[in-house]
Amino acid sequence: MKSLPAKSVALFAVSFGITISFVLLHHQTPSPVKPDPMARSFVLWLHGLGDSGPANEPIKSLFTSPEFRNTKWSFPSAPSNPVSCNYGAVMPSWFDIHEIPVTADSPKDEGGVLKAVQDVHAMIDKEIAAGTNPNNVFICGFSQGGALTLASVLLYPKTLGGGAVFSGWVPFNSSILERVTADARKTPILWSHGMADRTVLFEAGQAGPPLLEKAGVSCEFKAYPGLGHSISSEELSNLESWIKSRLQSSS
Fold it and tell me: Which PANTHER family does this UniProt record tie to the protein (predicted)?
C-alpha cells in the first residue's frame, strides 16, 4: 500500500477535524424554538343517558380560542346497562336511574355511581401520568354525565381545574361528602341548568349548590330561563370563558 506524503496526511487531518467540529457544533447549537406559554390541558366530556361519546365530539369545534390549541379532548361512551326508568331496557348508561323526571328527592344508585367514578378516575390518572397538570384537567358532563361529573370531581383526591355540570343532579347521599379530601374541596364547580327542564327538574339542579357550599366547595350556579333538557350555545360559550380563566400556563 502506497503511503501518503506527510503534507497530504496533515491536510487530511485538518480537513477531517474541521468537518467533525462543524458537525458537533451544528448539533450542539440547535435553532432556538419559542416556547408555547400554554401548557397541555385535558377536557373529559361525559354524555347523558342513551347517548354516546362520538355523538358529542362536535362540541370541541366550538372552542376556538387559542388557549385551547394544546387541549386534548376525550369523549368516552358509557357501557350498556339495563335502566329502571326505561323499564329495564338496555342502553348506554353510566349508572341506573330509577325515575324520570329526576327530582331533588329521586332514589339514588349510589353503588353504580361509585363504580362509574372509578372508571372516570382511571381516565384522569392516565392523563396526569402522561404529563398534564391536574390544574389543567376539566371534567364536564350533561344530564346523567353531569351527575357523574359532580361525583367524580368531588371524590378525586387532587385539586383539578374544574368540573362543569349541565342539567345534572346530586347522585349520591350527603354522607359521601365526608369522603371529599381537602384538595378536592378546592376544585371549582360550574353548574348550569335550564329552568324549563322537564327531564331533570330545575329543583334537582338547585339542590346541588347549597349542599356543595355547605361542604366548602365553590360552586357557580347559572339558571337559563326557557331552556329545556338540552345544552345551549350560550352555556358552551360561558364554559369556554370559564375554562380559559382557569388554565395554567407552562411557565
Answer: LYSOPHOSPHOLIPASE-LIKE PROTEIN 1, LYSOPHOSPHOLIPASE-RELATED
51 a catalytic residue: no
Phi, psi for residue 41 in degrees, rounded to 5: -130, 165
Distance CA(71)–CA(38), nearest Å, equals: 9
Q: What region does 210 belong to: left with phi over 0, alpha with psi -120 to 50, or beta?
A: alpha
Q: List the catalytic residue out of 143, 152, 167, 192.
A: 143
Catalytic residue among 51, 96, 109, 197: 197
143 included as an active-site residue? yes
pLDDT, tens only, 216-240: 999 999 999 999 999 999 999 999 9
Q: Residues of the chain whose pLDDT is less than 70?
A: 1-38, 250-251
Q: What cell was used for 234?
A: 350560550
Indicate the SS3 state at residue 237: helix
Decide if 191 contacts 208 (C-beta within 8 A).
yes
Distance between CA atoms of 56 and 53, rounded to whole angstroms?
A: 5
For residue 197, indicate whether it is catalytic. yes
pLDDT tens column, 9-25:
333 333 333 332 333 33
- Cα–Cα distance list, 66 to 71, 95, 128, 132, 240 (Å): 10, 36, 22, 18, 11
pTM for this model (two decimals): 0.85
Distance between CA atoms of 42 and 38, rounded to whole angstroms? 12
In terms of phi and psi (left: phi > 0; alpha: psi -120 to 50; beta: otherwise), the region of 167 is: left
- Asked if 53 contacts 42 with a C-beta cutoff of 8 angstroms, the reply is no
Residues 6 or more apart in contact with residue 157 via CB below 8 angstroms? 181, 183, 184
